[in-house]
Structures are given as C-alpha cells and as structure tokens.
Specification:
Blueprint (H helix, E strand, L loop, with lengths): L2 H15 L11 H16 L2 H16 L12 E7 L3 E6 L4 E8 L2 E4 L8 H12 L11 H5 L2
Antiparallel strand pairs: 1-2, 2-3, 3-4
Length: about 150
C-alpha cells in the first residue's frame, strides 16, 4: 500500500538524477535514499497536519448542514476502536488508512511511520476520547457528542 507513495516520489527523484552527470561515483547513494524517505514523509504530512485535519473533520461533524464528504476535509474517520485501531479515508491518497496502536504507540500501516498526518489525526482522536475504555469501538456520534 505505502509503496505507491514512495514510487511516485522515486519517479521524481529518478528524473532529477537523470539530469545529473554520468560520472557520479555513487558516494551520495545513502544521502539519496534518505532524501527519498524524507520527500515521501513530507508528501504524506506531519503530526501537525494530522491535528489540523482532525480539527477540520470535527468541525464539519459539528455542523449539521455540512456533510462529512466536504471537499475541504482531507481525512474522514471510518472506524475507531479506542487504544487499538483507527481506520481513516485519506482523500488526497484516495486510500483507506489503518493506524494501529501497538504498545501505546500509533503506527500508520500505509506510511509505515509513527509521525505522519494519519498518526497525528489518531493521536488527536485518542486524546479527545481518553475518558473512554480501551478496545471500545466508538461511533462518530459518540465521539462528536463526547
């Protein structure tokens, strides 16, 4: 799943590398692989981006007249099980995203990161529902009317 986002980034980097001189000795290979991961992580978003996406989603849910699928909302909550699993739909990636909580740490299964937008969204959601029991599935109504 997360491979697609890296492929897209790799294509951009490969096209830049093709413009480089052919006499490159490969000494920058380790640096280049770090650049690929860095670009992929930025394209997926940061924890702060996730907090912002959560606030946008929450605000839209609090407005009866604005539907959940508004164009302004990049991430939509599909399912939430406290301290266990969050399933999101990322409209920019056009993918369903699973964020698992493993030993208290949220890990995005799409990005394979613990600090992407999806994790930021999940952390905000977990904090909002901190008074609920672990492994309890909560509906959107239960979350919004918390």
């Amino acid at each position: 799943m997360g491979k697609n986002s890296y492929e897209c980034v790799d294509e951009k980097i490969d096209s830049n590398n093709s413009e480089m001189d052919d006499d490159n000795d490969g000494s920058g290979d380790a640096r280049d692989s770090n650049v690929k991961v860095g670009h992929a992580a930025r394209s997926i978003g940061t924890l702060d981006d996730g907090t912002t996406a959560f606030m946008q989603w929450l605000e839209s849910m609090n407005k009866q007249y604005e539907p959940n699928y508004s164009m302004d909302i990049p991430v939509i909550l599909r399912k939430f099980i406290k301290d266990k699993l969050t399933i999101l739909y990322d409209k920019n990636l056009e993918s369903e995203i699973d964020v698992e909580i493993i030993e208290g740490v949220p890990i995005c299964r799409y990005c394979n990161l613990d600090d992407c937008l999806h994790v930021g969204f999940t952390i905000s959601l977990e904090q909002m529902c901190e008074d609920r029991g672990s492994n309890q599935e909560l509906s959107v109504d239960e979350i919004v009317n918390n």
